[in-house]
Amino acid sequence: MQVVAALVERVQHASLQREDMGWLKQQMPNGFGPVFAIWMRDPAAARALPSKLKLFQHATSLGGVESLIEWRRMSDFDVDERLLRISVGIEDWRDLKADLLAGMKALLEEGVQGVQEIQGGEAEVPLR
């Protein structure tokens, strides 16, 4: 997933915690929720990614049946401009994964402002 590594700095989800989260597992015995956050390496990529997606709607709402992505900085200037919040709906996870990957590939192919610096000035990044 070189495309993801080139664009995404970190992912935050309840299932990815390093600390002992036994209390959280007790509250969520059927698994963790479908909401997570990603921090892109570059603000331009965070701002542009939602418009590259076909299955995710760019909206603020959590826990619905449709998959949503939100560039949080659009509505809250106090948050990191690299932050994207994602709420996974009822669509097939493989389709959603493919949509995110295609959107990220499009960012690299189009050379979104700032993405060339992320790639370390490389002319080409393998798109896998």
UniProtKB/TrEMBL annotation:
Keyword Transferase: yes
GO-annotated biological processes: transsulfuration
Assigned keywords, A-Z: Pyridoxal phosphate, Transferase
Keyword Nucleotide-binding: no
Pfam family of the protein (one): Cys_Met_Meta_PP
Cofactor(s) in the UniProt record: pyridoxal 5'-phosphate
GO molecular function, one term: pyridoxal phosphate binding
Top-level taxon: Eukaryota
A GO term from the CC aspect: cytoplasm
Family annotation (SUPFAM superfamilies): PLP-dependent transferases
InterPro entries: Cys/Met-Metab_PyrdxlP-dep_enz, PyrdxlP-dep_Trfase, PyrdxlP-dep_Trfase_small
Family as reported in the entry's similarity comment: Belongs to the trans-sulfuration enzymes family.
PANTHER family documented for this protein: CYSTATHIONINE GAMMA-SYNTHASE (AFU_ORTHOLOGUE AFUA_7G01590), TRANS-SULFURATION ENZYME FAMILY MEMBER
Name under which the protein is recorded: PLP-dependent transferase
Organism: Glonium stellatum
